[in-house]
Automatic annotation (TrEMBL):
It comes from Erythrobacter aureus. This is VanZ family protein. The keyword Transmembrane applies. The keyword Membrane applies. The chain crosses the membrane at residues 12-32, 44-61, 68-86, 98-118. Keywords: Membrane, Plasmid, Transmembrane, Transmembrane helix. The lineage of its organism: Bacteria, Pseudomonadati, Pseudomonadota, Alphaproteobacteria, Sphingomonadales.
Amino acid sequence: MNRVRNTRATNATRIAFGLLLLAIISASLFPGVSRPTIFASDKMDHIFAFFVLGSAAKFFWQGHRPITLFSLLALGGAGIEIVQWGMQAGREADWADFAADLFGAGVGILMADTINAIRTRLFGPAYL
């Protein structure tokens, strides 16, 4: 029974991460005028989006090394910028956006890794 419950929880977290990733990619590829924003600064939007992705990735895949997750998110950020480079709908690729993606992902992964370590030390291993 525990194995079935853990499998369902694992599948649910993977689906949740996939939906989160899809939402961030979609928001990144909206045309320039109608793109959704959270902050006044475009760079803060990038930092926030990849902070959320990085922390979610580390919480959902606790067994993976942080550098692996960071590398995958870096590839995703680079992919978004490459797609934006080829778009004609008011979106432009920007090295500063990519740097903001890397910063947000790194801080998110480190924060989640620290929280996981503290939680494990206090309460034992967690099962998602």
